[in-house]
Amino acid sequence: MTIDKIHPEDLEILGEKIKLGESRKLNFNTARLFTGTAVEVPVFIERSINPGPTVLITAGIHGDEVNGMEIVREVLTHKLNIPTRGTIICMPIVNIFGFINKSRYFPDGRDLNRQFPGNSKGSLASRFAFNFSKEILPLADFCMDFHTGGADRYNAAQIRIEDDNEVVSKLASVFNAPFTLFGDQIEGSYRESCGKMNIPILLNESGKSLSLDKMICKEALSGVKRVLAHLDMLNPKIEVPPIVKKSILIKETHWMRADCSGFLHIKTNLQDFVTKDQLIARISDPFGAVSHPVLARNDGYIININQAPMVYQGDAIFHISTKTE
User: Fold this and answer.
1) Are residues 184 and 308 in the same domain?
2) Residues 264 and 144 both lie in one domain
3) In which domain, by residue range, is 300 found?
4) What pTM was estimated for this model as a whole?
5) Quick one: which of 9, 7, 13 has its CA closest to 131?
6) Which has the closest alpha carbon to 98: 68, 138, 118, 53?
7) How far apart are CA 289 and CA 284, in angstroms?
8) Cα dist from 251 to 97, 157, 164, 174, whole Å
9) What's the number of domains the chain is made of?
10) Same domain, 275 and 208
11) Looking at residue 138, which CATH number applies to its domain?
């Protein structure tokens, strides 16, 4: 994998040619509503007069993950997307369908992040993934993709990468999220598709769906600044936040699940280091008769907490590291 590639002066994207030094807002046309109204995904392109790599920054592959969308919105607002060299392409809301409906999924009920690289004759989500993979993704030399935890599961700020990839590992250390998780690529995911195309990608998880957390967004924005500065693409007038504490590298994790149903009372905090048999929650019935303790099964960091007020037996309630570096 490499990031610095030689590109022609004209960038051809979505049927248009964009020269060095130009900026453009295009619409990625995907499909129409029942009314015939076109559904368009905004694509923001900024090109420096100086040649360099192309960075693709995306969010909203799941339509309810607004925290990720907010991060990319702030990239645009603070003009981090105007490079000193190369090209930056931003897509704050990839899954417009889901965003409109406040849903994780496409209208066909499918998870877009399981449909890559897609099929030109498949379902709506698969067709979208196919067109994205053919028309936009091949232009990228490096990707940053922003997500959140699903439903009420709140993710501590983290970068997810595959193991044994020096280029991606270096970029993850520059981004420096509180946690860096090593994990296999999921079949059909955007990250797997990038891997097969030899495009380095950092996948950021911050917060939970249908929720905005300005502090965790600010943390991710700091990571974006550090990476763009590392690539010599960030305007030197923009202050780059220093690294105060290095990211904690997590090799293995496990989910703790509820042994019973009831009200969930959390007794620990996200990012805390807990010890085996420490009380981290209680699950009680709604009538005050029973209260079950939830004890940590091992020493580790809390990297996800289920913030749902009520849980069923078997629901995932904590994501805890089991092996760190």
Assistant:
1) no
2) no
3) 253-324
4) 0.96
5) 13
6) 68
7) 8
8) 35, 16, 12, 18
9) 2
10) no
11) 3.40.630.10
- How many Å apart are CA 19 and CA 225, to the nearest integer? 25
Surface-to-core class of residue 81, CB atoms within 10 Å of its CB (0-12 exposed, 13-18 middle, 19+ buried): buried
Residue 6 within a domain: no
pLDDT of residue 5 exceeding 80, the answer is no
Q: Is residue 5 part of a domain?
A: no
Same domain, 221 and 262: no
Q: What pLDDT does 290 receive?
A: 87
Using alpha carbons, select from 224, 78, 53 the residue that is nearest to residue 142: 53
pLDDT score of 54 more than 90: yes
CA distance 100 to 121: 24
Please report where in the chains the tokens 């192309």 appear, as a residue: 54
Compute the residue count for the chain.
325
Least confident of 33-37, 63-67, 118-122, 175-179: 33-37
Residues 52 and 183 in one domain: yes
DSSP E strand boundaries for 230-309: 248-257, 262-266, 273-274, 279-284, 291-295, 300-306
On whether both 179 and 40 belong to a single domain, the answer is yes
Burial class (CB in 10 A: 0-12, 13-18, 19+), 39: middle
Indicate the pLDDT class of residue 248, thresholds 50, 70 and 90.
Answer: very high
User: Average model confidence (pLDDT) for the chain?
Assistant: 95
Contact 150, 62 (CB under 8 A): yes
Please report whether residue 59 resides in a domain. Answer: yes
> Helices 214-230 & 166-175, crossing angle to 10 degrees?
130
- Roughly what angle, to the nearest 10 degrees, separates helices 66-77 and 214-230? 50
Tokens, residue 215 = 């502090």
- CATH number of the domain bearing residue 262: 2.40.50.100
Query: Which are the contacts of 31, defined by CB distance < 8 A and separation ≥ 6?
Result: 39, 97, 124, 127, 128
Which two structure tokens, joined as six digits, stand for 61? 């592959």
Q: Which two structure tokens, joined as six digits, stand for 102?
A: 């406040």
